[in-house]
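Supplementary Methods S3. Complex input for the 89Y-bound model.
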Amino acid sequence: MTSLRFAAMGAGFWTQFQLAGWREIGGTTCVAIYNRTESKAKAMAERFGIPHWYSDPIELLDRETLDFVDIITGVETHRDFATLAASRNLPVVCQKPMAPSLREAEEMVAICNAAGIPLLINENWRWQRPIREVKRILDNGDIGEPFRARIDMISGFPVFDNQPFLRNEKEFILADLGSHILDVARFLFGEAAQLYCQTHRVHTDIAGEDVATVMLDTIGGVTVVVELAYAGNHLRKDKFPETCIFIEGSKGSIELSIHCEISVTTKCGTVSRKYPPPRFEWADPAYDIVHSSIVPCQANLLSELNKSGVAESTGEDNLQTVRLVHASYESARSGQAVRLA
Ligand code: 89Y
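Predicted complex, serialized as structure tokens:
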């Protein structure tokens, strides 16, 4: 199979890991990179052996022969880059969150549909090894019918050290982390019928909320509580960036706890096993579980691009996640539950 040629749009914090992920999978070649600050594009190009770098995306598209673009720029630019790619009939892979608002996300889907090109969202969280395993156990029926779940990512990790722009986001934790965790809620339990959300800002020097609690009722009748925090506080066991999950079902329970341990309890007792992520030398050990999930996620997206499979996180699918994020903001503002179905 020939290698698909792509351009990386953006040379920020996540680009290095996504490029390493593409390399790990094989079947693609990054032939060019854009960043509005040329020196950043050049530095990333030199590090990854990318032959051409640009500070003008139009020039890049005029000069390069591409099979797709990978948009890894700030969220406020995603629609413009997707529109540009669509004008050249180039399939789009786009970083999460898809867009800063539901309206823009819907426009991106419409623009790509009208151009007849795939829009695929690089939503990696649901590809974490223990989360895939939780889904397998759930689907296997080991705990019967699930009726309630808690999904949490509560951490004091200084997330702003690596991603300083997050400090200035007026919509912070629900957009940045909630996009992932609410997507996991959909992956495990299906679509929500309604939700209620409360938020807090604990850091005094940031623009957005750093704590959120979302309670979802799914169409299938499961109550799911999502707890998020980057409050910078001190916790006995800081689990960044591990997601903990507790699911109660009619015949038992599943608990994904720290260190990727899954315990399944049924009338026969408890069986526990660890599902650590694979280790890649390019991954930051502090983010291992997250960085390693980029590999199966991008492999899944590539299968859609080379027509050997079907992507899970299409733009259309991810619209439902974007809808949950913005319904959560709406609920937090109004103090009311928001109906979704
Ligand atoms: O930006 C976020 C992401 O996508 O994964 C973790 C993170 O880096 C901080 O919440």
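Residues 159, 163, 176-177, 241, 290 surround 89Y (CB under 6 Å). The chain has a mean pLDDT of 97.
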